[in-house]
Write a structure and sequence with these properties.
about 500 residues; Immunoglobulin-like; 4 domains; 47 strands
Amino acid sequence: MVMSVRMAPPLPLIILIMIHRVSGADWDVSYSPSHICALKNSSVIMSCTYTYPTGHQIMKVFWSKNNVKGEDHPDLSEDPEYSQRLQYLGDTQQDCSIRLSHVTQKDEHMYYFRFITDKPDGKWTGDPGVTLTVTDLQVEAPERVTEGHNVSLTCNSSCTLTDRATFIWYRNSQPLTERRDGNNQLLLQSVRREDAGRYSCALHGHSYISPAARLSVTYAPKNVSVSINGSGEIVEGGSVTLSCSSDSNLPALNFSWFKGGRLVGSGRIYSISNISSDHSEEYKCKSISEHGEKYSDAVTLNIMYPPKNVSVSITGSGEIVEGDSVTLSCSSDANPPALNFSWFKGRNLVGSGRIYSISNISSDHSGEYKCKSRNKIGEKYSDAVTLNIMYPPKNVSVSITGSGEIVEGDSVTLSCSSDSNPPALNFSWFKENQSSAVGSGQSFSALQSGRFYCEAHNQHGSQRSDAVTVIVKGRLVILYISIGVVCGAAVIIGMLIW
């Protein structure tokens, strides 16, 4: 915004010069002018001429401010109040002008010129004399103006100055402009807040400066800002106070608080108790006065809190098969972000870091895993996740059920068991040296002598058990279970059942 400072257009200044002549026959005193309006502390010249009859010789000339008949006419040059300030500029012929310096309101009088000749009746006083009025200057200005408006200041005097006046303006005791104008008005256009101050006026060539008048410039709130109480970190569970301030020379009528774009409070102070991470967002305030409103810049509440929502994710999808590689990732919501992670299988610490990797995974890795996330505010465990490792049957074995005597015509029940994930649901029974299965299912009834084994299947593979030997003799059934080889010879444990 550009502000122009200029003097208002000059108004016509009319000075009426009155030449006052006081005469009688050949006696004469003329004053020009007969009324003088002078500025306080200035010098005034009272112009005067006089004549007298031929044959008279001037004996004394002087000025007085008393012309009461029958009383003395005191000579002002002999008056202590005037002697240092009064200078006679005339002569003893016809010029009777004087200069009176440093005039004040006490000098407001009618002044008379008197001269005395050498004749007994040769005395004369120019009556009426010169009327002197002394004025000061006063700045007339509105108490306040709204920013952007125009305002006019006037330099007033109590009477019309006799001399043509050139006005000078000051703001805060500094000359406002080098421009001088005969007009007594100062026009400020498109006022800015910088135009506020104490204005005074003076006349060029005079030392007197008027008393200052204060001009206030009112404006809408500016420089609106938000401050956060205290210092350091804001930790979840604590309390926070936000304060709104603005630059305005009129009190704010209201303050409003916004979180994001949503109104959340009013008043210069906005307090939050038991603060949580949900309060982390941008806040700003709006200052409102009778001249307008303005928003502050946004401030962000950075709430510190320990890890929460800690969780474990498993890379990939679908089944985890023995021999694969698996990566577990730990994530959490924390401020400051968690940089320390620990991994547990059951209660055992098994690793650290945000990522925990297992290569060539086996069934031994099956179990519950969880991670612990930690920052400087606190720590938290995730819920447990279970690694379900898929693997083909292993540790396949045959067990014998039933008890008592086994005679010819009876049967022996063999049961097949295995360790697998998912559990094996498909079992096949074989007799050694035969390519085709002799039975299926987890149990098998043997009716004849021979070596038998089972084979367990799931979708990831199969495995066969060791063979067991069944011998039937008459009604004597001898069951042998081969369990190994020692020193190159088979070791057989036999059982006789009668």
